[in-house]
From TrEMBL:
<dbReference type="InterPro" id="IPR036390">
    <property type="entry name" value="WH_DNA-bd_sf"/>
</dbReference>
<dbReference type="InterPro" id="IPR018245">
    <property type="entry name" value="Gonadotropin_bsu_CS"/>
</dbReference>
<dbReference type="InterPro" id="IPR036388">
    <property type="entry name" value="WH-like_DNA-bd_sf"/>
</dbReference>
<protein>
    <submittedName>
        <fullName>Transcriptional regulator</fullName>
    </submittedName>
</protein>
Length: 207
C-alpha cells in the first residue's frame, strides 16, 4: 500500500535523523518548496518541528526538521503505559528479584530463538545482517553495515519497549548480553535512546 507523504517524511526523519527540507524533497521526489509546505502542515499537527542550527564557517544557519514527541508516538510503542504499570506493580508486590527473574527468562527465550534463526548464517557479517532483519520484524526499525575498519554497526531507530526499558534498565542490559551471545562477538552500545540519543547503536567486532 502506498504511503502518504506525511508518513514517508516521518519514517525518513525517524530512520535518518533530522533533515533539511531540501533533502526531504529529494528523498520524496518533490521540490524543496513542496516539502516545506508538507512540513508546515505536519508542524501544525504537532508532528514535526524546525530547529535552527549554525552552519560551519560563515554559512547561513540551517533549519533541520525533527520529530516531536507526538511524531514519535506515531510509531509502535509496545503498549507503553500498560507495560510500565505492570512492571511497577510486579516490583512493588514481589520485589526487584522477581523482575530480575522475568528479565532473565525473557533473555533466555530470546537468545534461544535468535540462535535458531541465525544458525545457518556462516560468518559475522551474515549474522549481523540476520539479527538486523529479526529486530526489524520485532519493531526496532534496524539496519546494519560494515565500517571501513572492518567492524560492524547495528542501529535501531525505534524502541517498541522504550517504556519498559525506561522503567527498568535491566531490559537494555539484557539485550546487550543477548546480542553478544547470539553473534558470538564483542558488542558495545555507542548510542542509547534512554541517554537522549535518537537511536540505539551497537559496534560489533570479532572476539
Amino acid at each position: 500500500m502506498r504511503q502518504s507523504p506525511a508518513n514517508r517524511i516521518l519514517i525518513l526523519i525517524k530512520t535518518e535523523g533530522p533533515q533539511l527540507a531540501a533533502a526531504i524533497g529529494d528523498a520524496l521526489g518533490i521540490s524543496g518548496e513542496a516539502a516545506r509546505q508538507q512540513l508546515a502542515r505536519m508542524a501544525e499537527e504537532g508532528l514535526v518541528e524546525p530547529v535552527t542550527v549554525a552552519a560551519a564557517g560563515r554559512g547561513r544557519p540551517r533549519q533541520l526538521w525533527h520529530l516531536t514527541a507526538a511524531g514519535n508516538r506515531r510509531f509502535p510503542d509496545g503498549h507503553a503505559e500498560l507495560t510500565a504499570n505492570l512492571l511497577a506493580t510486579l516490583t512493588e508486590q514481589l520485589g526487584a528479584a522477581a523482575l530480575d527473574t522475568v528479565i532473565s527468562a525473557r533473555e533466555a527465550e530470546t537468545l534461544k530463538r535468535y540462535r535458531k534463526e541465525l544458525e545457518t548464517a556462516g560468518d559475522l557479517a551474515a549474522r549481523v545482517e540476520g539479527l538486523a532483519a529479526i529486530r526489524t520484524r520485532e519493531g526496532y526499525m534496524a539496519d546494519s553495515w560494515r565500517e571501513a575498519d572492518g567492524s560492524f554497526m547495528l542501529v535501531e531507530n525505534h524502541c517498541p519497549i522504550c517504556a519498559a526499558a525506561t522503567a527498568c534498565a535491566g531490559f537494555c542490559r539484557s539485550e546487550l548480553e543477548t546480542f553478544r551471545a547470539a553473534l558470538g562477538a564483542e558488542v558495545e552500545r555507542s548510542e542509547h535512546i534512554l541517554a537522549g540519543a535518537r537511536r540505539c547503536a551497537y559496534r560489533i567486532t570479532l572476539r
